[in-house]
Amino acid sequence: MNQNPHLRASKTAVLLLNLGTPSAPTPKAVRAYLKEFLSDPRVVEIPRFIWWIILNGIILPIRSSASAKKYASIWLPQLGSPLMHYSRLQAKELGEKFSNEGNTVLVDLAMRYGKPSTQEALEGLKAQGMERLLLLPLYPQYSATTTASSFDEVFRVLSTWRDQPELRLVKHYHDNSAYIAALRDQVLSHWDKDGQPDFEKGDRFVMSFHGLPKRNLMKGDPYHCECLKTGRLLGESLGLELGQYIVTFQSRFGKAEWLKPYTAPTIEKLAKEGCQRIDIFCPGFPADCLETLEEIAMEAKESFLDHGGRDYRYIPCLNSNPKWIEALSNIAYQHLLGWSLGTESPDELAKCNERAELAKSMS
Questions:
Q1: What are the binding residues for Fe(2+)?
Q2: pTM
Q3: CATH topology of domain 177-315
Q4: Start-end ranges of CATH 3.40.50.1400 in the chain?
Q5: Which in 87, 126, 160, 224 has the greatest CB count within 10 A?
Q6: Which residues bind Fe(2+) (predicted)?
Q7: Which CATH number describes the domain made up of 7-22+81-172+322-346?
Q8: What distances in angstroms separate CA 156 from CA 37, 125, 173, one per listed residue?
Q9: Integer Cα distance of 344 and 11 in angstroms
C-alpha cells in the first residue's frame, strides 16, 4: 500500500537564485538567452510593442554574435560558463555545510533565465519532500530588475501548485556583517599575495557594481543606496579613507542616463591623471561572469593601460571563498529560525500514519 504523500518526511529547502547564462558561447544560445532576459518587463521598462520591435529588429540580430565572442573569451575548459560553475559550487558547498553541521536542508540553484529554470528547481525540491522554502538570491543588493524578478518567477510557478510550501524571502544582505567580512577576506587575500596598493602614491581601489538606469532610482529602487553602503562598509573594514576607494557603476546600455560615476570613464580619467595602479573588485557579483571577467578584467584593463596606467589588478569575485560560503550559511540561518532543519523521526511518522488510518476508518 502506498504511503499517504502528505505523511512523508517534510523537509526545509534553500533555493539560491541567480540571473542566468547562455548554455553555450554560440550566437544561437546567446540569442535565446538575451531574448528571454531582455523580454522581462522588470528589466526593460518601456512599452512592450515598441521594445519588441527594437529587441527583435535591432538588438538580437546585432548583439548575439558579438556577445557570443565575448562569452567564448571567458568560457572555462571542461567547466563551461563561469557563472554556472561557481553558482553550482556555492549551492553544493552550502548544502555540505548544512550537512556537516548535522542539519538536513535541501539546497538547490535556480536561474531566472535559462537553465536550471526556476520551475525545474522547485519541482525537484517538491519531489524530495520540500514543505518549507527559503529563497536566497545571489544578489546582495536588492533591485526590482534582479531580486524582484526572481521572486516573481517563483510566485508564478507556485501559483500553479495546489499544495504550496511555507515561504520565506531574503530581500537583501548588502550590509550583512558576514558578507562584508567575506568581501574583506577576498580583497586582503589578493593583497597578501600580490601586495597592497600604495595609496600615498596615488594608487586607487575601485569597487564596480552593475549599473541601472537612473530612472530606476527615481522610481524608488533602493539598489543605488545599497551599493553605496556596501562600498562604504567594505572600505571601512579595509581601513581605507575616503578618496582611496571609489564606487562606480558598469555595464551601461543605451543612451539614457544610468547610475554614476560610470566605471569605464572613471578608469580612463584615473590613468590620464597619473594614477599608476588600480585594484578593481566587483562586490555585487558573488560569482565571476561575463560582466566581471570580460568587461572588467579585460576591457577595462586595456583602457587603463592605453590611457597611461601601468598596473591594473583585477580581484576575482567571491566564487567559492570559504568565508563566502560561511556568510551564505549565516544569512540562511538567520531566516530559517524556528523552522525544522531535519526530518521527522520514524516514530513520529508512524504516529502520523496511525492517526490518519484511524481518521479514515471513522469517516
A1: 210, 291
A2: 0.91
A3: Rossmann fold (3.40.50)
A4: 7-22+81-172+322-346, 177-315
A5: 87
A6: 210, 291
A7: 3.40.50.1400
A8: 16, 16, 24
A9: 9
